[in-house]
Amino acid sequence: MEMERRRDFKGENNANANAMPSEDVTVDWRGRPSNSVSHGGMRAAAFVLGLQAFEIMAIAAVGNNLITYLINEMHFSLSKSANIVTNFVGTVFLLALVGGFLSDSYLGSFWTMLIFGFVELSGFILLSVQAHVPQLKPPQCNMLKSDGNECVEAKGLKALIFFVALYLVALGSGCVKPNMIAHGADQFSPQSPSQSKTLSTYFNAAYLAFSIGELIALTLLVWIQTHSGMDVGFGVSAAVMALGLISLVAGIFYYRNKPPQGPIFTPILQVFVAALLKRKQVCPSNPHMLHGSQTSNDKVGLSSHSANLIPTQKFRFLNKACIKNQDEAAKESPWRLCTPNQVEQVKILVSVVPIFACTIVFNTILAQLQTFSVQQGSLMNTQLTKSLHIPPASLQSIPYIMLILIVPLYDTFFVPFARKITGHTSGISPLKRIGFGLFLSAFSMVSAAIMEKKRRDSAVNLNQTISIFWITPQFLIFGLSEMFTAVGLIEFFYKQSIKGMQAFLTAMTYCSYSFGFYLSSLLVSMVNKITSSSSNGGWLHDNNLNKDRLDLFYWLLAALSFLNLLNYLFWSKWFDEHPSVSQKPQHNDNPHHGEDYHIYNFNSSKNNVDDYVP
After folding, report:
1. Which of 463, 443, 475 is nearest to 379 (CA)?
2. Nearest 5°: phi and psi at 197?
3. 3-class DSSP state for residue 257?
4. Which has the closest alpha carbon to 34: 237, 227, 191, 221?
5. pLDDT tens figures, 118-131
6. Cβ(311)–Cβ(344) below 8 Å
7. Which residue, of 59, 146, 299, 358, is most buried by count of CB atoms within 10 Å of its CB?
8. Is 582 helix (H, G, I), strand (E, B) or coil?
9. Residue 475 CA: distances (Å) to CA of 83, 367, 376, 384
């Protein structure tokens, strides 16, 4: 019945189905099949973009000023406060995997966002209540003037309330983030040429919404926290998050919803177990002899035409999971015998891991711009006019101001121009976009190293304080780099051909942020330890940048970035040259020509895997 409903809903014959990706079954809010007239498109995605802008606005305002609240209100030490902030940020991005898993397996994107959006909202409210009620905080005390004995650190019930509130925010935000991108992208059907092109616009619009939310958080909301108190600031974050949930619910009648597929890891684990159990067997020379009729367990599949899928030679060991034991008359367990569809799905997951890993160094650079570069600015001349000074932390808003201007221009002018040359619906492929972003990120560190050398020499040798505007190039270059890399990575992961795992794959991109921040902390510790034999006690040993050698640390990051770029070029070329599924070149009259959606040809009459054309 399910396959009949899919065929009726598509309205296409089998020949057309073989030439195009099989259409995902999507439903409306009542569970009925959706239609392209009333559901989906940019109208539906706009409501999700509203949630994205408001959600990042709410949590960025808390995260960017959290260390101030921890020191001044909760009376934690500087080192403990820094660790709390780092752990909070890392937890948010790691919990994205939980949100992606729950969405794809059990809840669906909409309900995952709604449920955990309220979890995040409750965390903001509890933070606001604690910040407002004196009995829920330690007694007031000036940590800067105290000798450390007068101020009482938050402990017991007060600390418990704070950490419960903080990690409610982390749990909610982590589970909401990947589903915002995935649910918005789900509103566009790859079967529609016009919507397929609009999908690229959506990814750019999503980053524009993110930039707007970050900019408002770094300026207006942080200003409210500073001048009206953290209780009001947390309350504003709660109100903003509530607006985001209202935006999400307002679009309920227009959404195309992808139903959850059941446990998404079960078919994947079955492949590894079956391949391991049959590791001593030899794969037949003819791939058509491999088992391919068992489809009942394909919860997460590549195509409804999986019976004729030919296993590729990539990660050939996994093909052993498809070897049928001819000696046994009884049907083998799905933990001993898998379909080529399952095997190819696992190959895709394994194939994208090197691409994911290459973006960790990129996010390590992002960590520097949020820490050391802000400290650089605190030692520079922040005066704009006689009475107006630029807060060093506001330097982080520079990339977002630029991106709010550049992203619409990129999508309006560059993408159509590049599309005419490349034939690609996104102008340039996600892999090329990521590569160009990684290339630019290396130059942001080169700029940072040169400017830090100039700043340090002026301060130490000439006793001069140069203008804070000298370090804006590193923020501008990295902002442009982030537009290419972050958006390209999300688009690349979302368009991988694993039905029912879009939210989880999108969640993987957020883990790169977490690993990047952890790598940053590790690098700082390692650099200090390795360079501590010098007379200065290490490049980053002192709290005074005029004594440290931050410029050398930036040069090290620049070198790592170039090496990481070479590593990425190798793996991206390997990914293109070794497809995980059999593909057939498409004619130019095909509406999906030049797209990243993998077009499958399941022609069982061929003995060899079809050539791949990226």
Report:
1. 463
2. -70, -35
3. strand
4. 191
5. 999 999 999 999 99
6. yes
7. 59
8. coil
9. 25, 12, 12, 18
CA 111 – CA 106 distance, rounded (Å): 10
What are the residues whose beta carbons fall under 8 Å from the beta carbon of 586, sequence distance 6 or more?
19, 592, 593, 599, 613
Give the separation between CA 101 and CA 169, rounded to whole angstroms.
19
* Cβ atoms 422, 498 nearer than 8 A: no
Which of 89, 68, 115, 87 lies closest to 233 in space, CA to CA?
A: 68
Rg (CA), the chain: 26
Distance CA 601, CA 610 (A): 8
Give the pLDDT score at 2.
39
- State the Cα–Cα distance between residues 177 and 246, nearest whole angstrom: 16
Q: How many residues appear in the chain?
A: 614
Which pLDDT value is given to residue 286?
61
- Reported as a pLDDT band with limits 50, 70 and 90, residue 593 is very low
Taking a C-beta distance cutoff of 8 angstroms, is the pair 441, 483 a contact? no
Nearest to residue 231, comparing CAs of 146, 134, 357? 134
Q: Does the pTM of the predicted model rise above 0.85?
A: no
DSSP per residue, 155-195: -HHHHHHHHHHHHHHHHHHHHHHHHHHHHHHTTS-TTSHHH
The secondary structure of residue 610, as a DSSP letter, is P
pLDDT of residue 234: 92
Please tell me the distance from the alpha carbon of residue 492 to that of residue 488, in angstroms, as a whole number: 6
For residue 79, count CB atoms less than 10 angstroms from its CB and return exposed for 0-12, middle for 13-18, buried for 19 or more.
exposed
Render pLDDT for 493-516 as a digit per residue (tens, 0 to 9).
887 767 678 888 888 888 888 888
Burial 445-483 (b: 16+ CB within 10 A, else e): bbbbbbbbbebbeebeeeeeebebebbbbbbbbbbbbbb
Q: How many CB atoms lie within 10 A of CB 235?
A: 20
Joined tokens for residue 386: 């006689």
pLDDT beyond 70 at 455: yes
Token pair listed for 594: 């030049």
For the chain, the straight-line distance linking the first and the last C-alpha, in angstroms and rounded, comes to: 35
- What's the Cα-to-Cα distance from 26 to each of 36, 41, 183, rounded to whole Å? 10, 13, 11
Share of residues in the chain with pLDDT > 70 (%):
81
Q: CA 406: distance to chain centroid?
A: 21
Distance from C-alpha of 401 to C-alpha of 130, rounded to nearest angstrom = 33
What does the block give as tokens for 210? 């993110």
Q: Report, as an integer, the average pLDDT of 243-251.
A: 95
Strands (E), 237-343: none
Is the per-residue pLDDT at 569 higher than 70? yes
Classified as helix, coil or strand, 601 is coil
With tokens 């807060």, the residue in question is: 391
Amino acid type, 423 = G
Identify the structural domains of the chain with CATH numbers, from first to last.
Answer: 33-143+152-262 (1.20.1250.20), 353-580 (1.20.1250.20)
294-338 tens-digit pLDDT: 344 444 444 343 444 566 777 888 888 888 776 655 677 888 888
- Are 47 and 247 in contact, with CB atoms under 8 Å apart? yes
Mean pLDDT score of the chain, rounded to an integer?
79
